[in-house]
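Problem statement: downstream parser choked on a complex file, so we are re-checking the raw output for the glycyl-adenosine-5'-phosphate run. The parser issue turned out to be on our end (a line-ending mismatch), but while we're here, posting the original submission so the record is complete.
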Amino acid sequence: MVKEDKIASIADLASFCKKNGFVFQSGEIYGGLAGFWDYGPLGAELRNNIKSLWWGAFVRKREDVVGIDGAIITHPMVWKASGHVDSFTDPLVDCLKCKERHRADNMLEDVGVENADALSIERMDELIQKKKIKCPKCKGDLGNVRRYNLMFRTQVGPVESESSISYLRPETAQLIFSNFQFVQKINRMKLPFGIAQIGRSFRNEISPRNFLFRDREFEQMEIEFFVHPDEYNKCPFMDEVNELVLNAYSSENQLKKQKMKKIALKELVKKKIMKANWQAYWIAKQYYWFIELGVSPDNLRVRQHLPDEKSHYALDTWDIEYQFPFGWKELQGIANRTTFDMTQHMKYSKKDLQYFDEETGKKVVPYVVAEPSQGVERAFLVFITDSYRKENSGTKDERVVLKLHPKLSPIKIAVFPLLKNDDNLVKKSREIFNELREHFETFYDSSGSIGRRYRRMDEVGTPYCITVDHKTIEDNTVTVRDRDSMEQMRVKTDELVNYLRELLSGKIKFSK
Ligand code: GAP
C-alpha cells in the first residue's frame, strides 16, 4: 500500500520549485525584489507549455476566436477610459509607528473576515478597530484605510511632464477593446466572436504574497468574447457543456452561509443562477481545460462574486477557484463586462467603434458576455500543486513525483546509458537521444545510479525514461519506464518515436 502525501504548504511548494530550478526570486543575489520571479529552464518550459496549450485550445482550434499581441505601454487615455486611473485601487493602511504599509482587506481576512475586499473603506476601518488589529511587523497602531492605485507609472520620452506619463498595463484586456474595430474589420469577423491575448501585466501590489499567487509582474491569458447585445443567451454550443457537473458556490449560497453545491451546469443555467448562457459556456470550457490537463475536479469550484464584490465594469462575475494549501482562492475570473468598455472607449476617443450588423442594417455596441481571464502563474501553481505526490510504500523507497499531464511536462523523455563508462552504451544512447530530441523535449543523463536518475526525473514530472543497456547492443531494444506505475517494458529502437508519440498524445496507454 503506497501512502501519498500532497504538498503541505505554499512555503514547501516554493522551496520545491527553487530546488528543482523551476522558479527563483528575481534579483536574489541582491536580496530579491518582492513580487517578481525568474523562471529557470524547467519553469520556462512549463510556462511555455501552459501558454501554448491554452492558445491551442481557445484560439488555434476555434474559428470564432482570433489572437492579438498588444503593447505593454499604450496611450494613457486607454487607462482613463477604462476606469483604471480613477478606480483601480486596493485598500491600504499605514502603521503609525514603523510606517510599514499593509493591505487592509488581507489583514481582515487573516483574522477570519470573509471576502474583505468587498467591504467599504469605512467598514474596514470599523472592523480594524473592533478586532483590535495591529501592525503585523511591530504591533503598532494602524492609521485610516485609504485607496491606493495599483498601476506602475512610467515616463514616455525624454521630457518629464504630465502628458508624458503613461502606465504599464495592469491587464491585457484593454488592448483588445481599443483594437476591436481594426481586428473585426480586417479579419471580417462576425458576432459572436472573441479576441484573445497572452501577455505580461503589471500591478504594484501592496503586499505580494503566497509565492507566485500575487505578483507585481505576471502574465495573463485573456479572451473578450463579443456578442450582439440582444443575443447573450444564444450560445449554439451548450450541448458541449450541459452535462458538466461542478462545485458551484452562488452568491445566494454565500450570503445565506450555505455550503457550495455539486450541480450540473445546465441546472445553473435553467435556474438562472448563471444568467447568460454564453457566459456559462465559457466558464465550462475553462473548467474543462483544467480537468483535461489532469487537475482533480474535487479541487476546483466556481464561485459567483457577491453584489458588492464585482468590479466597476461587471454585471456578473464567476471565479474558477482552486483549493490551494492556503484555502479556496481565485484561479481565473470570468466576467460579463457588458458594453461598458466599448462605450467608454467611444466616449473618450470620440470615435464610432460600433459593429455594423449586415443582417439588420443597424449598428450596435458589441457586448462582452464573457471575459475568461487567467493568470499563467496561478495555472502554474495549480498544475504543480495538484500533481505533486510524496509516495511512501513503507520501505526506504520514498519518492517525490510530479504526476503532470504529459502535455505539460517540461521534459517528455529522458535517455540514460546504463553505465556512463561503457563507450558502446554511451554511443548508442547519444544516437537515440539525438533522434528523440528531433521530436520531443528530451534530456540526457548519465550521472549517478539508474535509480537516482529515475527519481530525479520523477520529481520534475518526466513521463517516460529510456535506458540503454547491453541487450540494446545485441537486439536493438531499450527499456521504457513509466513514471506513474514505475513499470518497465522493452521496445524496439526503430519503433520508439512512434510508440512514444502515441503514449504522449494519450492515443495508447502504457502497459506491459
Ligand atoms: N481583465 C480582467 C482582469 O484582469 P482580474 O481578476 O484582476 O481580472 C484576472 O485578473 C486573473 O489574472 C486572475 O484570476 C489571476 O489569475 C491573474 N492575476 C491577477 N492579479 C494577479 C497578480 N497580482 N499576480 C498573479 N496573477 C494575477
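For whoever reads this later: Residues 122 and 145 are 8 Å apart (CA to CA).
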